[in-house]
Amino acid sequence: MLVEGPVEVVQEDGTLARSDRPVVALCTCRRSRIFPWCDTSHRGRKKPKAA
After folding, report:
1. How far apart are CA 36 and CA 11, in angstroms?
2. pLDDT score of 48
């Protein structure tokens, strides 16, 4: 999900993540190693082939 910055995200544990970038990609699949920011980890997953 792309969001215009600057952005502040309050995480589940209460910590605050900030970015001053003009556009920020937020992770919605929860696979990112730098969550809540997207690192494109979702791209590595292959869809199963149809039988």
Report:
1. 8
2. 67
The structural domains of the chain, with segments of one domain joined by +, span: 2-44
- Any idea what DSSP says for residue 43? G
Residue pair 2/24 in contact (Cβ under 8 Å)? The answer is yes
Residues forming a β-bridge with 25: 2
Closest listed residue to residue 35, CA positions, set 11, 8, 7: 11
pLDDT in tens, 11-50: 999 999 999 999 999 999 989 999 999 999 888 766 667 7
Q: Look at the alpha carbons of 14, 16, 22, 23 in this order and tell me if their dihedral is positive or negative.
A: negative
